[in-house]
């Protein structure tokens, strides 16, 4: 049986939510393996809109097991509120359908405060984070002072963990002019939320390996995009987790051999939220048009996304770092009506042409895109369900994308509705 990893192949917001929902119909288990509630996954099911941050997209489909893996950082209060909101929309969530890894690190209120305080410091270049405490929580995990789900079960352990965290955080907060943390209040609120979270706590690594052995199909749902990866992204303008497909193994406790297919989600143009280099960014009417037609506003922060032409150099690179077997190309319809379209095929830097994005930050900021121009199309591609419904120029565009990135299209998504999808290769096929 096939297990599939879905990753964003650009800077996030590629339309993963819909594709994960589409694939989850074929899966038995849907599993988050990195990130936290900085993600915003929008699903449209029979016209109803579901907005998810921390919960795996599988929760909205009945009969699936949804799993939050240890690679995630989890804000327990946000999760409880998200569960309540989704339940109000008629979705059933119980310990039978949702599991949280016992070794998942928790995002606590001081992580968010630290995130926002740092971003507010005018003296340091802003990252443009979501302000949700993601980075500080991952720092604490690596610094061996984070509080994990399992710690909530034992008051003595919890107090020890809190003491350890506060030594660090209170020193830091004093330097930033923030009040010291009220230990008693923090412990009281953790004790209050503990039963809500502990009812879902499981040794996820064990459950997933058992599911795998039983022949169940597991879908690993990535958040953000490969260019926000802590190692391979546009550092330091990245998120604080590994986003690329290899993280599906370490972020859940299943061996890398369990991954049979990596699906890269790729938008037919490029967007980015937050600061950092973006070689094909447009500041003209074309950019404005992409943003308006594509409704490019962040689902978490409401920020306007920066828009630009398709960058084949970046996607070729992310397809390699994630070992992508096939891509799902999304939002092709946003390109409808452009007279001509541009695709970036290389970068010019100091008189040379590069076929990859250099690592050094100053070079990333200085590369100039080399474009090739393709003919646009006038007909609408929105809602197309077969190749026959696409204009010849749109097919040419897709074929050129495949050629340049060195990876085939497995799925083509032509609207937010799940049925508006053209299937070329089923990632779950044996
Ligand atoms: P953080 O993940 O909140 O620390 O933010 C770090 C960077 O990642 C910022 O540029 C954010 O805009 C970006 N980011 C985080 N989550 C997402 C996402 O789900 N989609 C797109 N960008 C994201």
Describe this structure in words.
This is Adenylosuccinate synthetase. Homodimer. The chain has 430 residues and is α/β, with parallel strands linked by helices. Helices cover 31% and strands 19% of the residues. The chain is built from 12 helices and 18 strands. Helix 3 crosses helix 4. The longest helix is centred in the middle third of the chain and has 22 residues. It is globular and about 65 Å long. The relative contact order is 0.16. The structure holds inosinic acid.
State Rg: 22 Å
Q: In what range is the share of β-strand residues?
A: 15-25%
Number of strands: 18
For the termini, the CA-CA separation is 6 Å
Structural class: alpha/beta
Helix content: 25-40%
Largest sheet: 10 strands, mixed
- The secondary-structure element order is EHEEEEHEHHHHEHEHEEHEEHEEEHEHEE
**Number of H/I helices:** 12
Q: Give the overall form.
A: globular
Question: Which small-molecule ligands are present, each listed once?
Answer: inosinic acid
Largest sheet, order of strands side by side?
Answer: 7-6-5-2-8-1-9-13-17-18
Mean pLDDT: 95
Low-confidence stretches at least 5 residues in length (pLDDT < 50)?
A: none
What's the short version?
With 430 residues, the chain is α/β, with parallel strands linked by helices. It is built from 12 helices and 18 strands.
Please outline the helices and strands.
Elements: E1 4-8, H1 16-24, E2 29-32, E3 41-45, E4 48-52, E5 65-68, H2 76-88, E6 98-101, H3 109-120, H4 134-142, H5 155-176, H6 183-198, E7 201-202, H7 204-213, E8 218-221, H8 247-250, E9 261-267, E10 270-272, H9 285-293, E11 306-308, E12 310-311, H10 312-321, E13 326-330, E14 340-349, E15 352-354, H11 361-366, E16 368-375, H12 392-405, E17 409-413, E18 421-423
Parallel strand pairs: 1-8, 1-9, 2-5, 2-8, 5-6, 6-7, 9-13, 12-14, 13-17
Antiparallel strand pairs: 3-4, 10-11, 14-15, 14-16, 17-18
Helix pairs in contact: 3-4
This protein binds inosinic acid.
Binding site for GTP: 12-18, 40-42, 305, 331-333, 413-415
Family: Belongs to the adenylosuccinate synthetase family.
Subcellular location: Cytoplasm
């Amino acid at each position: 049986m096939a297990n599939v990893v879905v990753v964003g192949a650009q800077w996030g917001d590629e339309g993963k939510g819909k594709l994960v929902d589409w694939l989850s119909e074929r899966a038995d288990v849907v599993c988050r393996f990195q990130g936290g509630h900085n993600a915003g996954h929008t699903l449209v099911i029979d016209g109803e809109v579901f907005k998810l941050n921390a919960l795996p997209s599988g929760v909205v489909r009945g009969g699936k097991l949804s799993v939050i893996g240890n690679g995630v950082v989890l804000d327990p209060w946000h999760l409880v509120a998200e569960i309540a909101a989704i339940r109000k929309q008629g979705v059933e969530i119980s310990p039978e359908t949702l599991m949280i890894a016992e070794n998942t690190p928790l995002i606590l209120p001081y992580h968010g405060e630290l995130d926002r305080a740092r971003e507010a410091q005018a003296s340091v270049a802003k990252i443009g984070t979501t302000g949700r405490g993601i980075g500080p929580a991952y720092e604490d995990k690596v610094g061996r002072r984070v509080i994990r789900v399992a710690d909530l079960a034992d008051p003595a352990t919890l107090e020890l963990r809190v003491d350890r965290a506060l030594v660090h955080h209170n020193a830091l907060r004093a330097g930033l002019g923030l009040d010291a943390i009220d230990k008693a209040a923090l412990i009281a609120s953790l004790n209050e939320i503990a039963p809500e979270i502990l009812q879902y706590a499981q040794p996820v690594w064990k459950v997933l390996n058992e599911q795998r052995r039983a022949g169940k199909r597991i879908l690993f749902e990535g958040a953000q995009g490969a260019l926000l990866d802590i190692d391979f992204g546009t550092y330091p303008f990245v998120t604080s987790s590994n986003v690329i497909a290899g993280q599906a193994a370490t972020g859940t406790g299943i061996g890398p051999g369990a991954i049979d297919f990596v699906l890269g989600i790729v938008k037919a143009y490029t967007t980015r939220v937050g600061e950092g280099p973006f070689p094909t960014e447009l500041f003209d009417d074309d950019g404005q048009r992409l943003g308006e037609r594509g409704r490019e506003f962040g689902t978490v922060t409401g920020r306007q996304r920066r828009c630009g032409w398709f960058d084949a150099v970046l996607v070729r690179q992310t397809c390699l770092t994630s070992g992508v077997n096939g891509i799902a190309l999304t939002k092709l319809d946003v390109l409808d009506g452009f007279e001509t379209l541009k695709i970036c095929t290389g970068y010019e830097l100091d008189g040379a042409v590069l076929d990859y994005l250099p690592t050094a930050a100053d070079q990333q900021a200085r590369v100039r895109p080399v474009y090739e121009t393709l003919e646009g199309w006038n007909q609408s591609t929105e809602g197309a369900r077969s190749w026959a419904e696409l204009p010849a120029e749109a097919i040419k565009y897709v074929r050129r994308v495949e050629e340049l990135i060195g990876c085939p299209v497995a799925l083509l998504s032509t609207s937010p509705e799940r049925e508006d999808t053209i299937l070329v290769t089923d990632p779950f096929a044996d």
